[in-house]
Design brief:
4 strands
Length: 171
Amino acid sequence: MSQESQIRSAVRRIAENMPSDEPWSRRRFIDLVAEERNRPIVLWPVESALLSRVGLTGTLCGLWVARKQDDFIVYGSDVAEYQADQVISHEVGHMVLSHTGLPESQHSKAMLRVLLPHIPERTIEIALGRDSFEDDQEVAAESFADRIMVEAMVNRNRRQSPLRSTFFRAK
């Protein structure tokens, strides 16, 4: 299956399970993915400045950390709701597309100690940070996130959501 087909399939599978008579809900989205993966997903908001400081390029805005028993998504606590949803959806894209993590380095270990000091390093299986879009995994995760966010806005059966009303104001 091509990467494009994988993305379409993952978006379709998740979108079909989102309630069609309710506004978009980040929590419901995460709960659906957690149920599909059969493991909890913890959303871990931190200050955006902290994310930027620990990234290799100074532009880190999200991070997925997988352990045997759960997943963590780190994102900026002080960004617009839409941007937070986009970053979270991007990290979910890595999960559902079965992406592999960062090569272990002193930098990645230090980054994780700063962002998730309560998690022992030995329990981490995968860590993927969102600070560039130069490789295929990042492009695919961003494509997944874009499509999920469009799906959140265009489902005609849903009541008006805050996300949709941000972009499509009624006259």
